[in-house]
Specification:
Length: about 210
């Protein structure tokens, strides 16, 4: 039996541009930019790295402000990645267990699952606050497998970020790279690469 675990940003939705825009506009006053390899990591870790002289409370304030701004600018444009709904329906019909495993804040996860009305398709939702370490550590994906009661080696992860791919690999899982946030040539440490979910089926997943 396989289980399928979905990262959220760049996988359920193609939203990297909106995160980049929100980050650039919200943090422009600080002269701070985000390198591509930083995407997919938890806000707590990012804020500590970008603002090492600020308190943890200030880190939370900065992160919360940026995320609220992101939701504001993305809401009019939110839509599922191509083929996602069809794949989720197929997995549900065939009783394949699914989870969301994301380093994103719970507010963003609720925003996406509820706006797209897809919460019912997932058997578990795992966020960074539920584990000790965010991606690229494997904790989020190992916790997802635990909640689904499926061995990690039988789990397939959809990921768009390098940190997430590292996390899935470290968890001993198969990985399908989704080429939304990064070009395909950056997603080489995967078992397969897709542009969106119109290129994948349950039968293909079983063969990975």
């Amino acid at each position: 039996m396989i289980a399928v675990i979905f990262d959220m940003d760049g996988v359920l939705i193609d939203n990297a541009h909106y995160h980049e825009r929100a980050f650039a506009e919200y943090f422009s006053r600080y002269g701070t930019t985000l390198a591509p390899e930083m995407f997919g990591r938890g806000n707590e870790e990012l804020m500590a790295e970008l603002f090492p002289n600020e308190s943890k409370e200030r880190h939370r304030e900065l992160a919360d402000g940026k995320e609220a701004y992101y939701r504001q600018i993305y809401e009019p444009h939110i839509k599922p990645l191509g083929g996602l709904i069809e794949l989720l329906k197929d997995l549900k019909a065939n009783r394949v267990l699914t989870a969301v495993g994301s380093s994103a804040p719970i507010e963003n996860i609720d925003f996406v699952l509820d706006k797209l009305q897809i919460r019912s398709y997932f058997d578990a939702v795992v966020i960074a606050a539920m584990v000790q370490k965010a991606k690229p550590a494997p904790d989020i994906y190992l916790k997802s497998a635990e909640l689904l009661n499926v061995a990690p080696e039988n789990c397939i992860v959809f990921e768009d970020a390098l940190a997430g791919i590292q996390a899935a690999r470290a968890a001993g899982m198969k990985v399908v790279g989704v080429a939304t946030s990064l070009p395909k040539e950056r997603l080489t440490e995967t078992d397969m690469i897709i542009n969106d979910f119109t290129e994948i089926t349950l039968d293909i997943l079983k063969q990975i």
